[in-house]
Amino acid sequence: MKDQGYCGSCWAFAATAVIESHVAISTGLLFDLSPQQIAMCSPNPNNCGGSGGCNGATAEIAFDYVAKSDGLFEEFQYSYLAYYGENSACNIPDRAHPVATIEDFVKLPENNYTALMNAIANVGPVAVSVDASNWSGYHGGIFNGCNQKNPDIDHAVVLMGYGEDNGQKYWLVRNSWSASWGEQGYIRIARFDEEEQLCGTDITPHDGNACDGQDEPQNVCGTCGILFDSSYPLGASTP
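The structure assignment produced for this chain is given below.
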């Protein structure tokens, strides 16, 4: 379980973990890929979700970079140096070879419960954006403590699956705050059949996925806003 530290690179960690899973599904090879490469090398000219690096971006920005690059390196080839929140220049290793590629990515329809469920059930893990404002004190169990009236989409994570425990349905989410947080790095978020009706207004859209000039409040649905912004890679493989 990885730890982004004091760097706002959750978007890079989420995208890296999703690509790792999709490469493993397609090839049987599970790599430990480099979030540092995505965080420091992904162009974000329109400042979508932040200005990039430790200052935030989106999983879609990450997927677009990987699809247009030669591929991702392993963690030991391009190590994570941003734990304490410091950006650095993109520094592709000279003598190493990337081990994972994607061809493109899919952005699911916003606030669509069926589309997200189908992707998780039939495709694999999905990068999702959520309101994690109240997650710091989570230690275990099924969480339902988000602000549903004015959710602040501010964090990217990996939706791994879904389940049910004693009659309560949940989403299974992998975070990037180390294995000591939550349930060994995971959180179970309450899931309801009426997720699409659990909607609120995000009045700080630039914390999530808004780009320059996109200042209007956003309609965000699902527990902790989990239905709002979700995506996954296509054609994950090795070079």
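Interim note for the steering committee: The chain has a mean pLDDT of 97. The first strand starts at residue 104 and ends at 107.
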